[in-house]
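Readers of this paper often ask what the protein records in our data store actually look like. This encoding replaces a full spatial description with a residue-level series of whole-number codes. For reference, a complete record is included directly beneath this paragraph.
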Amino acid sequence: MTAVRGCNLPDDLLYDVENHIWFREIGDGKVKLGMTTVATALAGEIVAFTPKKVGRSIQAGKSCATIESGKWVGPAKSVASGEIVEVNEALVSKPNIANQDPYDAGWMVIIKPEDWDSAKTSLTPGTDVGPSYEAKMDKDGFAGCEAAG
């Protein structure tokens, strides 16, 4: 597990550092997405999670869900185009699960990406994510997860 300024970043995930989204390959050509601890610390308590519906196609760089907190409303972006095959209904009914357990219970959607091998090249492996996140936090003026809590 990599930790950057008190923010845990599991080594077994792939990261879109710019958009604070993690990706986990789960087999059958499917990929699970969620928010990083950095995203939840920056946003504060998540109060609404509105995913696109199962069966909907999403485009690379576009939203697969809308996230809302007391501080922020915005898109959760996917680096991969594809079809949404499952949404986390528990997160819809209790959005702050993402604050408590962003890497397991707080996942957002599962997609079946069209060209995962290509999309994957833009992601940072968890074992290498420390320096990228350190630089992003410096750029954004983010002190870290403990400071945000």
Remarks:
- The chain has one domain: 10-115.
- The domain at 10-115 is CATH 2.40.50.100 (OB fold (Dihydrolipoamide Acetyltransferase, E2P)).
